[in-house]
């Protein structure tokens, strides 16, 4: 548990999965990235889905939802998912029910971030958190629902369309406040509407990077994923967020890092940045 002023922060697991290392590290040669993230015989590396639960006296906010429970057995096997739904299990372990979550902020709408936003109940898809307002970037929603393969091919509509149908969807823009003390930052880069999330209170803060910085190994400015739609933008915004976090001694959340889910960042004169546990 981390205290950020009035906010109690818990890192909760949305699941773990296996992913191709070449996709995770993009143009970085395997001879380099495997020294920090070894792959198995199929070139797969283990990744986490680190979500954030932020609680105050007034609000219970969940940032990202992991893989959820809707994937078919074949899809679960292909992604190396373990049985069960760890997000709901971990929330229950913290004494939090789905009904108590009042806001769900989604960094973007890829399955490993928004899959748990909805659930299949008695054959129908409905929101997992019935009392929550779901916060999605306006550009992200437009791209995900565009019907254009170039923009919407990476999304699974069952993860998010029911949120609009239930009236729980809230579309936001850059620097919009979700609740007092929690703000979204449209970063672009990974997707055009990708957003990071800033939690601040009493001079302290935490930044949920989403897939702008999927693991602590991506602290290197040029290390980005092959999925990034705008590679230059990812590199630019990484520097902005890392500089901001370092200058203010804010923690950052590495949402796919199995070993280092959260850290601080320090500026280094020769190596750009360092991860400070």
UniProtKB/TrEMBL annotation:
Top-level enzyme category: hydrolase
Positions of the Metallo-beta-lactamase domain: 48-256
Family statement: Belongs to the metallo-beta-lactamase superfamily.
Gene source species: Bremerella volcania
Keywords (A to Z) from UniProt: Hydrolase, Metal-binding, Zinc
Annotated SMART domains: Lactamase_B
Pfam families: Lactamase_B
GO molecular function terms attached to this record: hydrolase activity; metal ion binding
UniProt EC number: 3.1.1.-
Signal peptide residues on this chain, from the entry's feature table: none
Descriptive protein name: Putative quorum-quenching lactonase YtnP
UniProt cross-references to InterPro entries, sorted A to Z: MBL_superfamily_lactonases (IPR051013), Metallo-B-lactamas (IPR001279), RibonucZ/Hydroxyglut_hydro (IPR036866)
Highest classification ranks of the organism: Bacteria, Pseudomonadati, Planctomycetota, Planctomycetia, Pirellulales
């Amino acid at each position: 548990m981390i205290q950020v002023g009035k906010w109690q922060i818990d890192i909760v697991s949305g699941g773990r999965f296996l992913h191709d290392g070449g996709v995770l590290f993009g143009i970085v040669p395997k001879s380099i990235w495997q020294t920090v993230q070894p792959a198995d015989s199929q070139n797969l590396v283990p990744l986490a889905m680190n979500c954030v639960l932020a609680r105050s006296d007034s609000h219970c906010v969940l940032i990202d939802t992991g893989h959820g429970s809707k994937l078919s057995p074949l899809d679960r096997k292909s992604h190396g998912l373990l049985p069960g739904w760890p997000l709901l299990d971990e929330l229950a372990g913290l004494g939090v029910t789905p009904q108590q979550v009042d806001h769900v902020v989604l960094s973007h709408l890829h399955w490993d971030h928004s899959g748990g936003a909805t659930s299949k109940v008695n054959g129908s898809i409905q929101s997992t958190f019935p009392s929550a307002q779901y916060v999605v970037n306006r550009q992200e929603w437009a791209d995900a629902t565009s019907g254009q393969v170039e923009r919407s091919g990476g999304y699974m509509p069952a993860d998010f369309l029911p949120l609009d149908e239930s009236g729980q969807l809230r579309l936001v823009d850059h620097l919009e406040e979700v609740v007092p003390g929690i703000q979204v930052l449209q970063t672009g880069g990974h997707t055009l509407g990708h957003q990071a999330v800033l939690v601040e209170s009493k001079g302290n803060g935490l930044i949920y990077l989403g897939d702008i910085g999927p693991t602590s190994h991506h602290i290197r400015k040029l290390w980005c994923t092959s999925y990034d739609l705008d590679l230059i933008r990812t590199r630019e915004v990484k520097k902005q967020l890392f500089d901001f976090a370092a200058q203010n001694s804010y923690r950052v959340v590495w949402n796919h890092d199995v070993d280092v889910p959260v850290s601080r960042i320090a500026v280094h004169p020769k190596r750009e940045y360092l991860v400070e546990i």
